[in-house]
Amino acid sequence: MSKIKEVKSARTGDMYYKIEHDSGLTIYLYPKPDYNSKYAIFGTHFGSVNNAFSLDGKEVKRVPDGIAHYLEHKMFECEDGDAFVKYAKTGANANAYTSFNKTCYLFSCTENFDESFDILLDFVQRPYFTDETVAKEQGIIGQEIRMYDDSADWVVLFNMLKAMYKNHPVKIDIAGTVESIAKITPKLLYDCYYTFYNLNNMVLCVSGDLTVEDILKIADKKLKPCEKHDIKSFFEDEPYEVCESYIEQKFPVSVPLFNLGYKEKYHTVSCEESAQIDIIMTILTSPSFELYNKLDGKKLINQSFDAEYFDGQGYNAVIFSGESRSPKQASETIKNYIENLKENGISEQDFEIAKREVYGDLLSSLNNVEAIANAMVDAHFENHDIFKLIDYVADCTAEDVNSRLKLMFDADNTALSVILPDKE
Amino acid sequence: MNPIIQKELADGVVFNSISDNRFKTMKLLVNIFLPLLEETVSANALLCYVLVRCCKKYPDMFTMSRKLGSLYGAEVNGSVSKMGDMQCMKIDISGLSDKYAINGEKISEQLSKLLCEVLFNPKVENGKFDENDIMQEKRQISDMIDSDFNDKRVYASQRLTEIMCADEVYGIKWCGTKEQIENVTAEQLYNAWQNMLKTAHFEITFVGECNPDIASEIIKNSFKEIKRTPVDLSTDVVYSVFEEKNVEEDMDVAQSKLEIGFRTACAEPEPEATATRLMSVILGGTASSKLFNNVREKKSLCYYCMSRYYRLKGIMVVESGVENANIESAKSAILAEIDDMKKGNISDFEINSAKLAVVNSTLGVADTVTGLANWYSSQVMDASVDTPEEAAKKISAVTKEEIVNAAKKLQLDTIYVLKSR
Prior knowledge:
The structure holds two protein chains of two kinds. Chain A is of the alpha+beta class. Chain A is 42% helix and 23% strand. Chain A has two domains: 3-233, CATH 3.30.830.10; 246-421, CATH 3.30.830.10. Chain A contains 15 helices and 17 strands. Chain A starts with a strand and ends with a strand. Chain B is an alpha+beta fold. Chain B folds into two domains: 5-224, Cytochrome Bc1 Complex, Chain A, domain 1 (2-Layer Sandwich); 245-420, Cytochrome Bc1 Complex, Chain A, domain 1. In chain B, a hairpin with a 2-residue loop joins strand 6 (124-125) and strand 7 (128-129). At the A-B interface, helix 2, strand 9, helix 4 and helix 12 of A face helix 2, strand 5, helix 4, helix 10 and helix 12 of B.
């Protein structure tokens, strides 16, 4: 029998079920009574960075860049027809995406949940690749890559990652290149599939007006039990230092863009640390605090200014991004401000406001079935918990945050990527 | 969800409230409609952003933002868009429902009052807005215009509208041009504010578990002093195309963009608008649409190829990103799909899947605070105001004949190509 655990949150008044299914899959159900919308997301811990791996200690396989994303496209094609066509009969809005660390298949619907859920569990567990179907995708993905080649936001990010990382595959475009995807074969796709699409390496998150019985009656029927295997991903050693501290490119844009990355030593981030980091990032990006106002007052940023904590298998960094007429000056201002903040500490008052902003933000995200289930996928792969995160934020102290801050932001280990207009 | 309660607080000022205890947050949304006009478009757009920046009580961005931050990260937002030939300024405030406040604050009451400060008590002195606030917000809008250019998909779609509607007010950008924004004076901005209070149509919507009366009372009292002559909400629809336009522009981009604009000869509040919308979804609105299946999947010509219907203006746009070598084949493939629809070659499967997709997204609207708030205010120019359920029923009732008729009315107006060099 599957193990079912209820997880409750006193602060939000909400709860979810965590089901350890017999098949090896972990399933989360977050009930949302009286919602029309239902959302399900089925994810595997396989993203663009997992390009070298071994199964049960056997030989290490190196696969072409972009294969996780290619596999995502090809999963929709089944022996008995296209999954999108099947969804078209239920009305669900279906999609999929591949990121650095995971591949997810999802749908949202208001009606015919059972049928759509059945389709999702079915096609993700039934790979079907032939030479012909694999070849057909080259043109479509080639155009997807071209589209991103024109995206200044995308290019400024990957330039920064290339400046920051010497070896880590996070610097490679998620979709790979036109050349790398040309090397993809059905055999390679099956190798990746049977390594990473093992239910023990996957997670299924559902939210909506649903019961455990609603989920299990279909899951019990569709999920094919998987043996647990030892999956290892390999990454070349990555030096602590960035490769280049500055990288620049001309592009057809009218406002210059920048990404400023602080590289950190790789470590896994606990849920409690994540709460502290959220508060720090708020202080560095929200208009309620000094840095934003300083940058805005000097006309160094506009509303596009933002920052994220960027971490995954083998990498951690903080990335500031935005449009700026003077990217170098913006970057200097950010760096100087952070140096001072590390020295003087975050004030009790700033801490309190930032904490409330983060708390309000996390609670608001529980309005939405999609946001909830997406957050649960991330939390599962990171060994976090969405309710614990809220509690850690509410219980966090200024002291905790100041000690965390001291461990972050090495001013000597940054990379600045700038995109300048190709003509003035 | 409970039914919507609607009352008129003043001439042309409508207050809607929807009490709903499913959400963790509340929202108070004010939609302000004014005619889209060359002379006023920039001042109105700038006004929207200056109003949400700060107010007399919280006189700069920092103090305003900290006040909102201390109310658990509440937010005041402004945005400007076109709805048909009307310019729509949206100003909203949202924040946590009272019961989730760690220290028991009455958040919604404070937020309701704050939004009224923003609208009725801005930082104005001697008939002028603050020069520094104006300068900062001019800069933000100017950057927004520039960043539209950074995104070539957005840029190409804007160019199509400009070219296609060059002789209509709809061809005006939501904020006018950069030069027009730059030239707005502090006095003009004050006049725009006064004009807005006196003549705009206000559609206000409150969603959440909190008491809407505080907001509605203050708004009602504030309008008592103002003598109002509200504008009519109307849009000119072009029913026939005199001359097809073909425009091609070069740029250093990796992928060319193909944009095709059609006149649908049907717009809200005409009842056939529902069938026209469905026709557009069948053509290119979903991953089971004709364009997705035939132009992307079978011919591998592109990654995206989709259509969109602007129901208030009677325009349908098809857009795609393609290689230079494939521009012509993509163009003919798209036009062939449309001819096919005109001939009645639409399967029951295509019709049913489009209906299901639209019904699904329509019913889903009721599950987000923003979706609900926008749902009602987006129908001010429609023949009737429907609930999501009523709208879903209308969609399901459309017949194949109505869809084919909608397709038959399509007239090619403009083809715009942004070509890579």
